[in-house]
Amino acid sequence: MPSQRSTTADKFIVDRRKPHRNSDVARAVRKTRDRLSQQAGNPDFDRELLKLHARAMIGGAIIVPLLVLATAATGLFAGVGKAIGVWALLILICYAIVVFMARRVDRTEAAELNPLQTHRDFLIGHFLCGLGWAWFAWLGCDACQVDQFQLAKAVVLLLAMAATAITASSLRGALLATFAVPVAAYAYAGARQWMPVELIMAGLLIVSLPFFAYVARRLNRSSLMLLSFRSEKDALIAELDTAKSMSDEARRRAEDANLAKSRFLASMSHELRTPLNAILGFSEVMANEVLGPMSNPTYRDYARDVHDSGQHLLDLINEILDLSRIEAGRYQLNEEPMMLLSVVEDCCHMMELKARNKEIRIIQDFEHALPRLFADERAVRQIALNLLSNAIKFTGTGGEIRVRVGWTAGGGQYFSVKDNGPGIPEDEIPVVLSAFGQGSIAIKSAEQGTGLGLPIVQSLLAMHGGEFELHSKLREGTEAIAIFPLSRVMEELPALPTRAVAARRR
Predict the structure, then answer these.
(1) Residue 24 banded pLDDT, cuts 50, 70, 90
(2) Residue 347, class by beta-carbon neighbours within 10 Å (0-12 exposed, 13-18 middle, 19+ buried)?
């Protein structure tokens, strides 16, 4: 049989078994990510790429100058002449200018940057550095061995191209602006002399330039992807923060409204009960003709109707107040040792007359010799009366109700109320377990009720650390089980020895 277990009286029915994932939102996020990752010329991303390039140039400011200094020192030692020293000075000045521009861009806020102007300035700086490398490619050395010098120049140019491809990958066109002219100058110088080594190295440089450009473009795209992901993450974080703020505000308002409702009901309990008690008392006096007979019997029937309606209204007010106190955390348990078997048996006797009027049999199936429970007897009695009242209300004439009390598998204690009534449809069990919820059978049969009995049972059991289970199947009946945990079961202590036994022991 389908079963439902709940430990709280939810006012709103939420199926927590289903995964709550908004597929439309996920699809929109995926489309946005693809669009951002493939979009070029985004001003915000251009600014971020310029900032990344500036940081990369500052972080790698020592790499190329070290290569230049090492090359100049080696050239001076090899006898190239003062020209290589002048070259080293000029190219270091060019790189210093680029680093200075990078520091200025890094210190400027991204929103204040002009992407086109800054991009152009960087390309001009790299082009000036490229002119320095073109001079280096054009240099000759009559005093050196020609093959070794040309080979060394090619190796230095390859190292400089690799370093620039990595450090300047965030700036589109930086590698070509820097080394297109040097590679052309080296190829032209090699073609003039028509030496095999120079031709091979020139071809290697010509092939290496588009390869390093491809590497730089891939690194640039990776940087763009990372920026798009970061932008998407920031947008999602902002949306989550907004949703969290709205949720916190809604929760605060709901808590304030719930507290105001509980305070209102608590303060109005006396004002509501006092006139109701007067109505009940006077209508009962009139219906029973305590002060004398009534000439018109219709008035006597009206008095009974007034008394029954007032009693129903009083029960409704009491249940609403009980549930409000439980939700507000003001329901105090008066815990003491009690016998669950005795309380359930008393409740069965109390409901016996009501069941006999509908020709319903109450069968008691109790396990005896159960130890005491440490619980609130009034709350346990209310749980038992609510379950028995529901069973009698929805069991047809001539039906049967079986009440069980016994041990649970975990060492706790339970009592169950099982009827052979019409049962509850599976999809209506969450409705029945919610506050003010009534099933379709209760609505069709026009049974009087507030829909608060089972939520109160759930809440009282939750305050005791217990559980409530509802098993039902349509046209086969319903079984409600109240379970008290092992921690509520009290162990029996051994009896104290009498004086005679104590004397014998001495």
Answers:
(1) low
(2) buried
- In the predicted structure, residue 496 carries a pLDDT above the cut 60: no
Residue that the structure tokens 């066109």 belong to = 173
Q: Identify the pLDDT of residue 271.
A: 73
Q: Does an H or E element contain 156, and which?
A: helix 146-167
The answer to whether the CB of 384 falls within 8 A of the CB of 421 is no
User: Do 180 and 130 form a contact (C-beta atoms < 8 A)?
Assistant: yes
Ramachandran category for residue 451: left, alpha or beta (phi over 0 → left; psi -120 to 50 → alpha): left
Q: Enumerate residues 6+ apart whose C-beta is below 8 A from 359.
A: 397, 398
Do 493 and 435 contact (CB within 8 A), yes or no?
A: no
CA 281, CA 288: separation in Å to the nearest integer? Answer: 11
Q: Cα(255)–Cα(27) distance, rounded to whole angstroms?
A: 35
What distance in Å separates the CA atoms of residue 123 and residue 175, rounded to the nearest whole number? 9
User: Which ranges constitute the DSSP H helices of 39-62?
Assistant: 43-59
Q: What is the mean pLDDT of the chain?
A: 78
In 3D space, the residue among 294, 321, 456, 325 whose CA is nearest the CA of residue 381 turns out to be: 456
Residue 349 token pair:
């006797």
SS3 484: strand
What is the C-alpha separation between 57 and 166, in angstroms, rounded?
10
**pTM of whole model > 0.70?**
no
Strand 361-366 and strand 400-407: the pairing is parallel
